[in-house]
Automatic annotation (TrEMBL):
Molecular functions per Gene Ontology: ATP binding; ATP hydrolysis activity
UniProt keyword list: ATP-binding, Nucleotide-binding
A Pfam cross-reference name: AAA_3
Family per similarity comment: Belongs to the MoxR family.
Domain ChlI/MoxR AAA lid span(s) in chain numbering: 249-314
Domain ATPase AAA-3: start-end pairs: 42-172
Organism, as annotated: Tepidicella xavieri
InterPro entries to which the protein is assigned, alphabetical: ATPase_AAA-3, CbbQ/NirQ/NorQ/GpvN, ChlI/MoxR_AAA_lid, P-loop_NTPase
Protein name: MoxR-like ATPase
Protein backbone atom coordinates (compact mmCIF):
# COMPACT_ATOMS: atom_id res chain seq x y z
CA UNK A 1 0.00 0.00 0.00
CA UNK A 2 1.74 3.16 -1.25
CA UNK A 3 0.35 6.04 0.74
CA UNK A 4 1.63 9.46 1.73
CA UNK A 5 2.28 10.38 5.39
CA UNK A 6 -0.82 12.58 5.28
CA UNK A 7 -2.97 9.67 4.09
CA UNK A 8 -1.51 7.42 6.80
CA UNK A 9 -2.26 10.00 9.48
CA UNK A 10 -5.78 10.41 8.07
CA UNK A 11 -6.42 6.66 8.26
CA UNK A 12 -5.25 6.55 11.89
CA UNK A 13 -7.42 9.56 12.71
CA UNK A 14 -10.44 7.75 11.25
CA UNK A 15 -9.68 4.68 13.37
CA UNK A 16 -9.33 6.77 16.53
CA UNK A 17 -12.46 8.75 15.71
CA UNK A 18 -14.46 5.55 15.34
CA UNK A 19 -13.18 4.22 18.67
CA UNK A 20 -13.95 7.54 20.40
CA UNK A 21 -17.56 7.33 19.22
CA UNK A 22 -17.87 4.52 21.77
CA UNK A 23 -15.12 5.18 24.33
CA UNK A 24 -15.35 8.47 26.23
CA UNK A 25 -12.13 10.16 27.35
CA UNK A 26 -9.08 7.97 28.01
CA UNK A 27 -7.19 9.80 25.23
CA UNK A 28 -3.79 8.90 26.62
CA UNK A 29 -4.74 5.24 26.97
CA UNK A 30 -6.11 5.15 23.42
CA UNK A 31 -2.91 6.72 22.14
CA UNK A 32 -0.84 4.06 23.90
CA UNK A 33 -2.99 1.27 22.42
CA UNK A 34 -2.38 2.67 18.93
CA UNK A 35 1.36 3.03 19.62
CA UNK A 36 1.56 -0.61 20.70
CA UNK A 37 -0.40 -1.68 17.63
CA UNK A 38 1.82 0.26 15.21
CA UNK A 39 5.04 -0.81 16.94
CA UNK A 40 3.88 -4.45 17.09
CA UNK A 41 4.22 -4.49 20.86
CA UNK A 42 2.03 -5.66 23.72
CA UNK A 43 0.33 -3.71 26.47
CA UNK A 44 -0.05 -4.28 30.21
CA UNK A 45 -2.87 -2.16 31.62
CA UNK A 46 -3.51 -1.53 35.30
CA UNK A 47 -6.77 0.00 36.41
CA UNK A 48 -9.86 -0.64 38.48
CA UNK A 49 -12.86 -2.34 36.84
CA UNK A 50 -15.23 -0.34 34.67
CA UNK A 51 -12.76 1.95 32.90
CA UNK A 52 -13.52 0.70 29.35
CA UNK A 53 -10.37 -1.40 28.96
CA UNK A 54 -12.22 -4.31 27.35
CA UNK A 55 -14.50 -1.99 25.37
CA UNK A 56 -11.51 -0.15 23.90
CA UNK A 57 -9.83 -3.25 22.46
CA UNK A 58 -13.11 -4.74 21.24
CA UNK A 59 -14.08 -1.49 19.50
CA UNK A 60 -10.64 -1.17 17.92
CA UNK A 61 -10.92 -4.70 16.54
CA UNK A 62 -14.27 -3.86 14.97
CA UNK A 63 -12.91 -0.64 13.47
CA UNK A 64 -10.10 -2.49 11.65
CA UNK A 65 -12.16 -5.59 10.77
CA UNK A 66 -9.98 -7.68 13.06
CA UNK A 67 -10.80 -10.67 15.23
CA UNK A 68 -11.13 -10.06 18.96
CA UNK A 69 -11.03 -12.62 21.75
CA UNK A 70 -11.10 -12.28 25.50
CA UNK A 71 -9.70 -14.72 28.04
CA UNK A 72 -10.77 -14.39 31.67
CA UNK A 73 -7.79 -15.59 33.69
CA UNK A 74 -8.72 -17.71 36.70
CA UNK A 75 -6.73 -19.92 39.11
CA UNK A 76 -7.98 -23.14 37.46
CA UNK A 77 -6.87 -22.16 33.94
CA UNK A 78 -4.36 -24.46 32.20
CA UNK A 79 -1.98 -23.62 29.31
CA UNK A 80 -4.08 -25.61 26.82
CA UNK A 81 -6.96 -23.22 27.47
CA UNK A 82 -4.84 -20.51 25.87
CA UNK A 83 -2.79 -22.07 23.08
CA UNK A 84 -4.85 -25.14 22.20
CA UNK A 85 -4.32 -28.88 22.41
CA UNK A 86 -4.46 -32.21 20.60
CA UNK A 87 -7.79 -34.09 20.71
CA UNK A 88 -8.24 -37.78 19.88
CA UNK A 89 -11.14 -38.54 17.54
CA UNK A 90 -12.58 -41.99 18.34
CA UNK A 91 -14.36 -42.18 14.98
CA UNK A 92 -11.31 -41.62 12.81
CA UNK A 93 -8.76 -42.96 15.34
CA UNK A 94 -6.65 -39.87 14.71
CA UNK A 95 -5.49 -36.86 16.67
CA UNK A 96 -6.55 -33.38 15.55
CA UNK A 97 -5.25 -30.02 16.69
CA UNK A 98 -7.64 -27.53 18.23
CA UNK A 99 -6.19 -24.05 18.31
CA UNK A 100 -6.79 -21.87 21.35
CA UNK A 101 -8.11 -18.31 21.67
CA UNK A 102 -4.63 -16.78 21.21
CA UNK A 103 -5.17 -17.20 17.47
CA UNK A 104 -6.73 -13.80 16.92
CA UNK A 105 -5.73 -10.24 16.03
CA UNK A 106 -6.48 -8.57 19.35
CA UNK A 107 -6.32 -10.69 22.48
CA UNK A 108 -7.49 -9.38 25.84
CA UNK A 109 -6.00 -11.28 28.78
CA UNK A 110 -8.32 -10.08 31.52
CA UNK A 111 -6.89 -10.04 35.07
CA UNK A 112 -3.77 -11.91 34.00
CA UNK A 113 -2.43 -11.98 37.56
CA UNK A 114 -5.24 -14.32 38.66
CA UNK A 115 -3.73 -17.31 36.82
CA UNK A 116 -0.73 -19.32 38.06
CA UNK A 117 2.75 -18.87 36.58
CA UNK A 118 2.53 -21.87 34.22
CA UNK A 119 -0.46 -20.29 32.46
CA UNK A 120 1.14 -16.86 32.31
CA UNK A 121 4.26 -18.47 30.84
CA UNK A 122 2.16 -20.07 28.10
CA UNK A 123 1.87 -16.58 26.62
CA UNK A 124 5.66 -16.15 26.46
CA UNK A 125 6.23 -17.87 23.12
CA UNK A 126 3.22 -16.41 21.38
CA UNK A 127 4.01 -12.86 22.57
CA UNK A 128 7.66 -13.00 21.53
CA UNK A 129 7.69 -15.37 18.56
CA UNK A 130 4.06 -14.88 17.43
CA UNK A 131 3.70 -18.63 17.13
CA UNK A 132 2.56 -21.60 19.19
CA UNK A 133 4.05 -25.08 19.28
CA UNK A 134 1.59 -27.93 19.92
CA UNK A 135 2.84 -31.53 19.85
CA UNK A 136 5.90 -30.49 17.86
CA UNK A 137 3.93 -28.54 15.25
CA UNK A 138 4.36 -24.78 14.91
CA UNK A 139 1.32 -22.62 14.23
CA UNK A 140 1.63 -18.91 13.40
CA UNK A 141 -0.86 -16.45 14.89
CA UNK A 142 -2.64 -14.00 12.55
CA UNK A 143 -1.10 -10.64 11.70
CA UNK A 144 -1.41 -8.06 13.13
CA UNK A 145 -1.34 -9.48 16.66
CA UNK A 146 -1.67 -7.54 19.92
CA UNK A 147 -1.95 -8.84 23.47
CA UNK A 148 -3.44 -6.46 26.00
CA UNK A 149 -3.36 -7.80 29.53
CA UNK A 150 -5.15 -6.16 32.44
CA UNK A 151 -4.59 -6.45 36.15
CA UNK A 152 -6.69 -5.18 39.01
CA UNK A 153 -4.71 -3.15 41.58
CA UNK A 154 -7.32 -3.23 44.36
CA UNK A 155 -7.91 -6.96 44.90
CA UNK A 156 -4.82 -8.98 45.79
CA UNK A 157 -6.45 -12.12 47.23
CA UNK A 158 -6.04 -15.08 44.90
CA UNK A 159 -3.56 -13.30 42.64
CA UNK A 160 -0.10 -14.37 41.48
CA UNK A 161 2.76 -11.95 40.77
CA UNK A 162 3.72 -11.84 37.10
CA UNK A 163 7.11 -13.47 36.41
CA UNK A 164 9.81 -10.99 35.45
CA UNK A 165 10.30 -12.71 32.09
CA UNK A 166 6.59 -12.30 31.40
CA UNK A 167 6.47 -8.64 32.40
CA UNK A 168 9.44 -7.80 30.17
CA UNK A 169 7.52 -9.05 27.13
CA UNK A 170 5.12 -6.13 27.45
CA UNK A 171 6.21 -3.06 25.56
CA UNK A 172 4.44 -0.70 27.98
CA UNK A 173 2.57 -0.70 31.24
CA UNK A 174 -0.19 1.91 31.20
CA UNK A 175 -2.05 3.16 34.26
CA UNK A 176 -5.72 3.96 33.61
CA UNK A 177 -7.43 6.42 35.93
CA UNK A 178 -11.04 7.37 36.62
CA UNK A 179 -12.80 9.69 34.14
CA UNK A 180 -13.55 13.31 34.97
CA UNK A 181 -17.04 14.32 36.09
CA UNK A 182 -17.80 15.71 32.61
CA UNK A 183 -16.60 12.54 30.91
CA UNK A 184 -18.60 10.36 33.29
CA UNK A 185 -21.77 12.29 32.45
CA UNK A 186 -21.16 11.63 28.74
CA UNK A 187 -20.50 7.95 29.49
CA UNK A 188 -23.91 7.65 31.17
CA UNK A 189 -25.61 9.36 28.21
CA UNK A 190 -23.98 7.02 25.67
CA UNK A 191 -24.59 3.83 27.63
CA UNK A 192 -28.22 4.63 28.40
CA UNK A 193 -28.95 6.23 25.02
CA UNK A 194 -29.47 4.72 21.55
CA UNK A 195 -27.03 2.03 20.49
CA UNK A 196 -24.04 3.21 18.45
CA UNK A 197 -22.87 0.81 15.76
CA UNK A 198 -19.20 0.71 14.82
CA UNK A 199 -18.37 1.32 11.16
CA UNK A 200 -15.22 -0.50 10.01
CA UNK A 201 -12.88 2.13 8.54
CA UNK A 202 -9.80 0.01 7.80
CA UNK A 203 -8.69 -3.56 7.24
CA UNK A 204 -6.07 -5.70 8.92
CA UNK A 205 -4.07 -5.50 5.68
CA UNK A 206 -4.04 -1.69 5.89
CA UNK A 207 -3.03 -1.93 9.53
CA UNK A 208 -0.17 -4.29 8.64
CA UNK A 209 0.94 -1.79 5.98
CA UNK A 210 0.94 0.98 8.60
CA UNK A 211 3.17 -1.20 10.77
CA UNK A 212 5.63 -1.49 7.89
CA UNK A 213 5.57 2.29 7.36
CA UNK A 214 6.21 2.71 11.08
CA UNK A 215 9.52 0.84 10.76
CA UNK A 216 10.61 3.41 8.16
CA UNK A 217 10.15 6.44 10.43
CA UNK A 218 13.50 8.18 10.91
CA UNK A 219 15.01 8.09 14.42
CA UNK A 220 18.13 10.20 14.86
CA UNK A 221 21.15 8.40 16.42
CA UNK A 222 21.15 10.98 19.24
CA UNK A 223 17.67 9.78 20.25
CA UNK A 224 18.81 6.16 20.26
CA UNK A 225 21.78 7.14 22.46
CA UNK A 226 19.36 8.95 24.79
CA UNK A 227 17.33 5.75 25.14
CA UNK A 228 20.49 3.75 25.80
CA UNK A 229 21.59 6.17 28.55
CA UNK A 230 18.17 6.13 30.23
CA UNK A 231 18.03 2.34 30.33
CA UNK A 232 21.68 2.09 31.38
CA UNK A 233 20.98 4.49 34.27
CA UNK A 234 18.42 2.03 35.66
CA UNK A 235 21.08 -0.71 35.77
CA UNK A 236 24.17 1.24 36.81
CA UNK A 237 23.02 4.56 38.30
CA UNK A 238 26.51 5.31 39.62
CA UNK A 239 27.85 5.53 36.06
CA UNK A 240 25.50 8.43 35.35
CA UNK A 241 25.95 10.44 38.52
CA UNK A 242 22.99 8.78 40.23
CA UNK A 243 24.90 6.72 42.78
CA UNK A 244 22.65 7.82 45.66
CA UNK A 245 19.77 5.82 44.14
CA UNK A 246 21.76 2.65 43.48
CA UNK A 247 20.55 1.08 46.74
CA UNK A 248 16.91 1.55 45.75
CA UNK A 249 17.08 -0.55 42.55
CA UNK A 250 17.72 -4.30 42.55
CA UNK A 251 17.34 -4.88 38.82
CA UNK A 252 17.14 -2.38 35.97
CA UNK A 253 15.54 -2.56 32.55
CA UNK A 254 16.62 -4.98 29.84
CA UNK A 255 17.62 -4.13 26.24
CA UNK A 256 13.96 -4.67 25.32
CA UNK A 257 13.30 -1.33 27.01
CA UNK A 258 15.71 0.46 24.65
CA UNK A 259 14.10 -1.23 21.66
CA UNK A 260 10.62 -0.36 22.91
CA UNK A 261 11.56 3.29 23.41
CA UNK A 262 12.88 3.52 19.86
CA UNK A 263 9.97 1.67 18.27
CA UNK A 264 7.48 3.57 20.42
CA UNK A 265 8.94 6.93 19.37
CA UNK A 266 8.56 5.87 15.74
CA UNK A 267 4.93 4.87 16.26
CA UNK A 268 4.05 8.04 18.16
CA UNK A 269 5.68 10.17 15.45
CA UNK A 270 3.67 8.37 12.77
CA UNK A 271 0.52 8.79 14.85
CA UNK A 272 1.25 12.51 15.01
CA UNK A 273 1.64 12.73 11.24
CA UNK A 274 5.43 12.82 10.93
CA UNK A 275 8.01 10.66 9.15
CA UNK A 276 10.67 11.45 11.77
CA UNK A 277 10.75 11.15 15.56
CA UNK A 278 11.32 14.10 17.86
CA UNK A 279 12.68 13.98 21.43
CA UNK A 280 9.20 14.57 22.87
CA UNK A 281 7.95 11.43 21.12
CA UNK A 282 10.37 9.41 23.22
CA UNK A 283 10.15 11.30 26.50
CA UNK A 284 6.35 10.96 26.49
CA UNK A 285 6.72 7.17 26.53
CA UNK A 286 9.59 6.72 29.01
CA UNK A 287 7.46 6.15 32.16
CA UNK A 288 5.17 3.66 30.38
CA UNK A 289 8.10 1.69 28.94
CA UNK A 290 10.21 1.57 32.12
CA UNK A 291 7.83 1.45 35.10
CA UNK A 292 7.22 -2.31 34.98
CA UNK A 293 10.85 -3.17 34.26
CA UNK A 294 12.37 -1.71 37.42
CA UNK A 295 12.62 -4.04 40.41
CA UNK A 296 12.94 -1.96 43.55
CA UNK A 297 14.95 -3.14 46.54
CA UNK A 298 13.42 -3.69 49.97
CA UNK A 299 15.15 -0.50 51.11
CA UNK A 300 13.57 1.47 48.28
CA UNK A 301 10.12 0.09 49.05
CA UNK A 302 10.59 0.73 52.77
CA UNK A 303 11.42 4.37 52.09
CA UNK A 304 8.31 4.76 49.94
CA UNK A 305 9.93 4.97 46.52
CA UNK A 306 8.02 3.97 43.41
CA UNK A 307 9.25 3.10 39.94
CA UNK A 308 7.64 6.25 38.54
CA UNK A 309 9.38 8.47 41.10
CA UNK A 310 12.79 6.97 40.31
CA UNK A 311 12.18 7.23 36.56
CA UNK A 312 11.32 10.91 37.00
CA UNK A 313 14.59 11.49 38.88
CA UNK A 314 16.59 9.64 36.21
CA UNK A 315 14.94 11.64 33.41
CA UNK A 316 15.82 14.81 35.29
CA UNK A 317 19.52 13.90 35.27
CA UNK A 318 19.89 12.53 31.71
CA UNK A 319 19.83 15.49 29.28
CA UNK A 320 17.35 15.28 26.42
CA UNK A 321 19.04 15.67 23.02
CA UNK A 322 18.30 18.80 21.04
CA UNK A 323 16.25 18.55 17.88
CA UNK A 324 18.84 17.72 15.20
CA UNK A 325 19.07 19.88 12.11
CA UNK A 326 18.11 16.81 10.06
CA UNK A 327 14.63 17.03 11.57
CA UNK A 328 14.20 20.62 10.42
CA UNK A 329 15.30 19.74 6.89
CA UNK A 330 12.94 16.76 6.77
CA UNK A 331 10.09 18.88 8.14
CA UNK A 332 10.58 21.42 5.35
CA UNK A 333 10.75 18.65 2.75
CA UNK A 334 7.49 17.18 4.06
Amino acid sequence: MNTTPAEQAQLMERILYEVKRIVVGQDRFLERVMVAMLAQGHLLVEGVPGLAKTLTVKTLAQAVRGHFRRIQFTPDLVPADLVGTRIYNQKTFEFSTTLGPVFTNLLLADEINRAPAKVQSALLEVMQERQVTIAGETHRVPEPFLVMATQNPIETEGTYPLPEAQVDRFMMKVLVDYPTDEEEAVIVERVTGPRIDITPVATTEELAALQQHCRQVYVDPSLVQYAVKLVSATRRPQDHGLGEWQRFITYGASPRATISLTEGARALALLRGRTYALPEDMTDLVPDVLRHRLVLSYEGLAEGWTSDALIERIMGRIPVPAKPLAHEAMAKAA
